[in-house]
Amino acid sequence: MSITTRAAVVESGGAPFTLTDVELDAPGPREALVRMVATGLCHTDLGVASGGLPFPLPGVLGHEGAGVVEAVGSAVTSVAPGDHVVLSFTSCGDCRNCHGGHPAYCATWLPLNLTGGRRADGSHTVSRHGEALGGHFFGQSSFAERALADERSLVRVDPGVPLESVAPLGCGVQTGVGAVWNVLAPATGSTVVVLGAGAVGLSAVMAAALTPATTIVAVDRVAERLELARELGATHTVDATREDIPDAVRRISNGAGADGIVETTGNTGVLRQGVDALAARGTLVVVGAPPFGAEVALDVNGLLAGKRIVGLTLGDSETQTFIPALVRLVGEGRLPLHRLISTYPFAEIDRAVQDMTTGKAIKPVLTF
Fold first, then answer.
1. Bridge-partner residues for 132, per DSSP?
2. How crowded is residue 236: how many other Cβ atoms within 10 Å of its Cβ?
3. By CB neighbour count within 10 A (0-12 exposed, 13-18 middle, 19+ buried), where does 318 fall?
4. CA angle 241–238–263, rounded 5-degree value
């Protein structure tokens, strides 16, 4: 039996979100029906809604959900009705990377999360007036009052922590934190630079502040975001409208360069400057995603000093252990995620999009 719910549908690339009733399929054996309490708005959602990223439209997006389980499929064992859950990406669970604890690099990640718009078996999870819509976005499509989610997208969390405060953990926050903890793993006394002080970048700043790194540099073009970065743990800030990034990093590091850099802007010019700012044996983590096919030219001889450039998806996180740890840090006040969040009623999703696009809001969270 299908379930009728209210959802924000994107009719075509560049169209606004339209609130309308849709029908969810009944939960499959490895799925759960979740009543949404909150869901974050991410740049990936905006990229798809604009037509810049491939996804079948009309469709239902949303991939930073948090809610309460209402019903589960016959084979679900990890959650039960009444559980509080954070929704993240899905994965097959059977490939080498899934078995190795790296589900963000699942062999079928793209069709399961982004490009497919349907279950792995080809069936649809959401429809309208009998016509199938793009759904199953990151295994959840959480821009709706109820979502049909893959079991592997669900992470049971402490019910004592408000779901509105942890919804962004499913994508943006775990990406920024994972870049620092899972890839850079800063050594004592090291220098970490974060390029871009948006939600992902500021999450990386907060993560770096919980490591032995002693110099944490935030780089952005907006003074207010640089000030917030200082309040969240940055020891230094660089206004990219006034200073050359490599020169500034060398100045701050007494000529050594950065041991680790997180590039969140998706700007290939900024990426190149980041590589030039690395110390010998330094690592740059590429998080920001420019348009498909974007390329960057590098000084090959400059790489011979042991510099490493690493691409990253979703923090390379094993969500079942990583997200509960982040929830605990949020609950204890050690990861002050509330400083990034602005809440909006679900019906005001277009205002949230506008505020995010103009930079007024760092991390909009829709509430139901």
1. 127
2. 19
3. middle
4. 90
